[in-house]
């Protein structure tokens, strides 16, 4: 089986367009997940971080601008490229879209080949110059130092056992293994190697750990784990 070019979340409240774009992107080699509105899109973003998001602007409850704003405020999502796909093609609308920090703007009706070209270009740029990702920080020395500082702070009056407040969280065995290795300061590639799995799977488990612990970065996750006796 050929590996997908990337994981795309498509958010649009028009079923026919959603189905057509999903099929075209799928035929072009992308793995596509869909959401029928902005609210559902945000829920799916919390469950899984995609490589790119395509979203309509005019949607009920949560529109495209609100969706993009929420993403840019989330450390795990702020660097995910976003394409606005919308019927609103006026110059003022495009300016507002770019001011909201979308990465591309395509007006309906659109050429499917142009959409694929935009998606491929954005993903190529991101892969060539990967931005900071809270799930896998580039400076492992800094992370190791931060973890040690957390352990020192939590150590009670010079004893070797840190103060803990037990908490019951239903981790799967693999999530617990990933958490233990994150607490040791390992990066996703190193964790993948130790657990004999893919980096993508590790990213998935780290994302689940963020969700289950209510944290947004690895240092926050490690602090939480040590404070509650979830890792050593």
Describe the fold and architecture.
With 232 residues, the chain is of the alpha/beta class. It folds into two domains: 7-128, 3-Layer(aba) Sandwich (Rossmann fold), CATH 3.40.50; 140-227, Winged helix-like DNA-binding domain superfamily/Winged helix DNA-binding domain (Arc Repressor Mutant, subunit A), CATH 1.10.10. The protein is 50% helix and 10% strand. The protein has ten helices and five strands. It has a five-stranded parallel beta sheet with strand order 2-1-3-4-5, sandwiched between helices. It is elongated and about 55 Å long. The two termini are 39 Å apart.
List the helices and strands and how they pair.
Layout: E1 7-11, H1 15-27, E2 31-35, H2 38-47, E3 52-55, H3 64-72, E4 82-86, H4 91-99, E5 104-107, H5 112-128, H6 140-154, H7 173-183, H8 188-195, H9 199-213, H10 218-227
Parallel strand pairs: 1-2, 1-3, 3-4, 4-5
Helix pairs in contact: 2-3, 6-10, 7-9, 8-9
